[in-house]
Each structure stands twice: as structure tokens, then as C-alpha cells.
């Protein structure tokens, strides 16, 4: 039997550092909620906005799959692997931090903020050689359908990570319906609404709400607003 957990947008943790406004779906930094530690392999889901010219100085990570999805503006990435990149709206960035990575992330523009999702997943392999990947998406591929952006398969659509997880994005007209089939037995699905509103298996979710579904073979998704956009994360429940 399917079970559901609803995280309304206004119940998330929030940190305001002046230059950074960050909403935390799960416990992170100074926000601690023992009932919101993770959803399966999904450990961190931060909805960040960084002021012009500001950002995160170089800092380390290891044994985590880190995904950045810019929603507005441009993000400048540098790391000790030799990557210096600009990540823009429509791009997906992935780091498999493995044995260790030092990186920094800055707003590439002085005159406007950058908004992006920062997502961490526990990997299914430890101490791998660190890697960086970045792809650009075609917005037409997510109009009224699901566009796969991440999978475990190097040869599949989108980019890949060291985890049996699949990410999809979709931008829908009002009334459009789609059925998402869970990719692997034992996985759960966490849906985050980027804009507009939907029903997920009949449950209403709005902008910046998240809903986790476990124990289901598929979920039914109906857009209840125009230009309603969501991110679906299909992850092992560990």
C-alpha cells in the first residue's frame, strides 16, 4: 500500500544570511528536524537564492552525489579537478564527490540573483574517483511530458550518477495528465513543485511543496495550473 508524506512550502527550514536565502526540505546546517532527515537516498534538498556577486567559497565534499539545477540566473563553478564552468537555467550539473572534491559556487552576475536547487544523494558506491558532468536541456522536451535528466545509466538520456535514481522534469498545461511508473522495485518517488499546482494521486500540491510517495508502482499526476512545472526524483528507500 502506498504511503505519502507532504512537505508544504512554508514548513521548510529557512536560513537568511543576507547574501543567501536558503529553504531546506530536509535537515541541513543549523536547521534540524528529526522527522525530516531524508527521503530514502535523498539527503539534502535546498532551494537557494544567492545575491549578485556572492557565493560559497571553496569547501570539501566526499562520498555524495551532488546535483545543481539553476532556475534563474547563472552559477559559476570551480573545483580542484580543473573544471571552471558557468551553469545556466536549463543546465544540470552533477558531481560524484567520491574520494573528495573541493569546489566553489558563485553567482556569475553582479547585478541580479541566481536561484538554484542543490540536491545531495547518498551514492551506491563509496570512494569512487571524483567526476564532474554538465548537460544542457532542450525545454521543448519537457513540454506536456516528462524529460529524463538523470539516471544510473551512462548511455541513457540525461546525465548519470552513482545511484539507482532517476530524475525527470515536466512543464504542463492545465488539465494535462501523466502517469509516472516507478523505475525500480523498492524505490520511492519525491515530487517537488517548481511552479503552479498539481494533484499527485489526488492530493493537492502547490508551488514549492514536496510530496514523497513510497510503496507505489506508479503515481498519477494532473496539472491544475497553466505552466505548472515539477521535478520527480525516483530514489531507493534504503
TrEMBL record:
SUPFAM superfamilies given in the database record: RmlC-like cupins
Database matches in InterPro entries: Pirin, Pirin_N_dom, Quercetinase_C, RmlC-like_jellyroll, RmlC_Cupin_sf
All copies of domain Quercetin 2,3-dioxygenase C-terminal cupin, residue ranges: 149-235
Residue ranges occupied by any Pirin N-terminal domain in the UniProt entry: 12-121
Required co-factors: Fe cation
GO molecular function, one term: metal ion binding
Signal sequence bounds: none
Note describing how the cofactor binds: Binds 1 Fe cation per subunit.
Family affiliation: Belongs to the pirin family.
Listed name of the protein: Pirin family protein
Lineage: Bacteria, Pseudomonadati, Bacteroidota, Chitinophagia, Chitinophagales
